[in-house]
Amino acid sequence: MSRILVITTSLRAKSNTDLLAEQLIAGAKAAGHEVTAVSLKGKDIRFCIGCLACQKTQRCIQKDDAPAIADLVLNADTLVFVTPIYYYEMSGQMKTLLDRLNPLYSADYRFRKVYLLSAAAEDEAFVPERAVSGLQGWVDCFERAELTDSLFCGGLNDAGEAAGAEQKLKAAYAFGKALA
Fold it and tell me: Vertex 84, ends 166 and 54: CA angle to 5°?
């Protein structure tokens, strides 16, 4: 059993990625994992200012919601980032959070496996490549971790559209059930 942290990054109400994340979480729980979910909706996460004080203290000097999320990331066995694809890339709020997780770089982080679940209006196979590459760049900074797998659910545009996309919901459930 792993302690899995799922971070959903869409700020949209009734988002497709949230609906897919619910299925992923159900699958992970069915496999016996302990799952914690964090949504970036309503969170105050400011841009990294590049001061690098966190490299000495393992804490960010900014007082917002990012340090509490960083603590959850630090102590999770497995991370799952869930993002809509905007302009063929991860959401801006996901990128901002990744930047703000800089205090973990020099910390004794627990996570070893990182996964990505993404969704977009476009359905071509290449659509998530930059989001995967961007997350891979972050993971590469953590030598004990690996980007283990990703699932892309394309063809979802309107808010809540995933609720009627049975195959995509089943794929998200299976993805969650297979998490390690």
Answer: 135
User: Strand ranges (DSSP E) for the chain?
Assistant: 3-8, 34-39, 78-84, 113-120, 146-154
Question: For residue range 72-115, what is the model confidence (pLDDT) as tens digits?
Answer: 999 999 999 999 999 999 999 999 999 999 999 989 999 999 99
- Count CB atoms within 10 A of the CB of residue 175: 21
DSSP at 89: B
CATH for 104: 3.40.50.360
Task: For residue 73, give its domain range.
Answer: 3-177
Give the tokens for residue 130.
């930059």
Please count the structural domains in the chain.
1
Instruction: Name residue 122's amino acid.
Output: E
Q: Look at the pTM and tell me if it is higher than 0.90.
A: yes
- Express as a percent the part of the chain with pLDDT over 90: 95
Report the pLDDT value the prediction gives residue 1, as an integer from 0 to 100.
85
Left if phi > 0, otherwise alpha if psi is -120 to 50, otherwise beta: which for 88? left
